[in-house]
Automatic annotation (TrEMBL):
GO terms for molecular function: nucleic acid binding. It holds the Pfam family PDDEXK_3. It comes from Priestia megaterium (strain ATCC 14581 / DSM 32 / CCUG 1817 / JCM 2506 / NBRC 15308 / NCIMB 9376 / NCTC 10342 / NRRL B-14308 / VKM B-512 / Ford 19). It comes from the Bacteria. This is PD-(D/E)XK nuclease superfamily protein.
């Protein structure tokens, strides 16, 4: 046990060890300190794996506890890795996002607003926002984004993508003369044409983490 160092978290002591330049924690200590049941039976859990816990089936309060611990750990270990701090911010968004899902109010509006502020983070570094509520004749598409001059119509939906949603974005593409479209929703079982791609709500966290 002499290779371990300890971190104080509230009234708990958590053992941690650095292996191959990565920080790991005794899973039992994490479980007891945060009052959560870890899904893994492994003796150790890495700092990076802690970020994935926010995606698992914990309550909002449990996710907040995980989030607080990650922040304190990053500070206590004096970690300056920009990727880890960026991922920490995404954990916070994941919690906010889950709360929005629970409330199920003004959900589509919140999704569009977040996408407007995080175009490059979600869709990719080369994407930029051109216009929110893009007018197409008397109609309005949710977003217009572009990548290296190629434009994309984006439509945001609260639930499962339906044939009506697909027909809607295809209509926008036809009327606007734009060749590419993106549907964002809860799930999609449709076979989409090659000019339209789908992003699930949950990918708001997972896409950025990869």
């Amino acid at each position: 046990m002499e290779d371990y160092r300890t971190l104080k978290y509230g009234d708990s002591t958590i053992r941690t060890i650095n292996m191959e330049k990565e920080d790991w924690f005794v899973a039992k200590d994490i479980s007891e300190a945060l009052s959560i049941s870890l899904s893994s039976d492994e003796e150790l859990i890495s700092l990076k794996q802690l970020f994935f816990l926010v995606e698992e089936d914990y309550s909002i309060e449990e996710k907040k506890a995980i989030h607080r611990f990650i922040k304190k750990t990053l500070l206590a270990l004096e970690i300056k890795d920009e990727f880890l701090w960026f991922t920490y911010e995404l954990c916070f968004f994941r919690i906010i996002w889950d709360k929005e899902i629970e409330r199920n109010s003004n959900y589509e509006h919140s999704l569009k607003k977040w996408l407007c502020n995080n175009i490059a983070r979600f869709f990719g570094a080369e994407f930029v926002l051109e216009k929110e509520e893009h007018p197409i004749g008397k109609l309005r598409a949710d977003l217009l984004i572009s990548k290296k001059g190629e434009q994309y119509i984006v439509e945001c939906k609260t639930g499962k993508i339906t044939p009506k949603h697909l027909e809607q974005i295809q209509n926008y593409l036809s009327l606007s003369g734009i060749d590419r479209g993106i549907l964002v929703g809860q799930s999609c079982e449709l076979i989409l044409p090659k000019d339209i791609v789908f992003y699930a709500h949950k990918d708001l966290y997972k896409t950025e983490k990869n």
